[in-house]
Amino acid sequence: MRKRLFRLFIILALAIILAGCHGRKYIPNFICPSEFDTESEYNISFWAKNDSNPTQRKILEKAIADFEEIYPNINVEISHYTSYPELYNAVLQNIGTNTTPNVCIAYPDHVATYLENPTLVVELEELIYDANFGLGGSELKFDGPNYDEFILKYIQEGYIKSEGENKLYTLPFMRSTECLYVNKTWLEQYDFEIPKNNIFSWDYIWEICEFAYKKDKSIIPLIYKSSDNFFIELAYQNGHDYSNDDGEILFSNQENKDMVMELNSLFKKNLFVTWQNTGYYPGDKFNKGDCIFGIDSSAGSTWIGPSSPLGAKGNEDFEVLVTTIPQVDVENPKVISQGPSLCVFNKENSQEVLASWLFTQFLLTEETQVNFAKTEGYLPVTTTAVESEAFQSFLSSPDTYSVQRDAILNVIEYQDYTFVTPAFNGSALVRDVVGKIIDKSVMSKKREIDIDSIFSEALTDCSSS
Question: Residue 31 and residue 463: Cα distance in Å, rounded?
Answer without folding.
Answer: 35
